[in-house]
Amino acid sequence: MSRPKKRRGGRVTPKQTRPRNWDDPGPTSHRGGPAPDELPLLAEIREALSAGHPLGLLALGSTFAELATDAERPRSMLSDEPGSERPQVTWEMIVDMLSATALPETTALLHALVLFAPPPWDSHLRVELEQRRLHQLPGWVRTLDEVEVTQVWEQVDVLGDGENILLGLRWSTGDELTVVLYIDHNIGGLIKDFISGLGDAEEILTMFEAEAEAGSSQRRIDPADARARIESAVQRWSMTWPPVLSDEWPVARPLVQWVASKLPEGGVMPTREELSDEDRDRLIDSFLGSPDGDSFR
What we know:
Elements lengths: L41 H9 L3 H18 L19 H10 L3 H10 L7 H10 L16 E10 L5 E10 L4 E9 L5 E9 L2 H11 L5 E4 L2 H16 L14 H8 L16 H12 L9
Helix pairs in contact: 1-2, 1-4, 2-4, 3-5, 4-5, 7-8
């Protein structure tokens, strides 16, 4: 099974992975931060807000969160080039910058970041948000965490080499989003790619079916089991070097883990039966006796 292709909904990450002029923010504002017109990423935050859907803002927050997480790793997982320079964007830097610049745009980003921030930074962000109640923001920004997973599907390769897990989300505002994780079992069962699409999960699944390889199957799966698979696949990715990278992974990792946290716990991983010696020998003999096995005889 090939990894999922990009679907309607566009990018899920910002156009760059490091804020412009982060180390030299320019003139300062009345609270000691960058002047409003100079603040990095303001334009991208406005673009996310103008879309009228949670995806862009969540993706932006997820990218910041992954950059901050990567700064704490012994070696960067955002590049597979040995010795490559990593963006030094820490949680302390993020909190300080956003706290120093009280604008509607930065308040909106705070609403997304607080979903992904680890302790104690999540508490710092919540305290800052409490001081910004007067900022006028779209209603959906303040309800980002009011979301439920309404559908969970899997699409599996006929040989079990890989699978897509599709999660359908619905917010209290009625907005919908489908996220798709590609788990590659040929390289240890880790997440290899991530995409998202605006709309219902069954609609997105129909698009996938049209391009699926012959013999692939799809079915609903238990939400708790899906959580177990996702958490295992994220952990396996984090243990693999060099890291497996795509345009949207791993900057979507905090978003994926947040979505997985909305699923129930207690799921079990699927068991993979080992072939007996007799079954293995029978399979080898069958292959060697076929036209495809000519070059191996």
